[in-house]
Amino acid sequence: MTENDRLLLNAYIDGELDPAHVLEFERRLAQDRALAEEQTRIEALRGAIRERLPRATASPELRRRIGALARPRLFAIDWGAKRRLGAMAASIVVAFATGSAATYLAIRPDRGEPELLVSSHMRALMASRPVDVASSDRHTVKPWFNGKLPQSPRVVDLAAQGFPLAGGRIDVIGLTPAPTLVYRARQHVISLTALSVSLRARGTIRPIDGYNVVEWTDGSLAYWAVSDLAAPELENFAKAFRAGDAEP
Question: For the whole model, what pTM was predicted?
Answer without folding.
Answer: 0.54
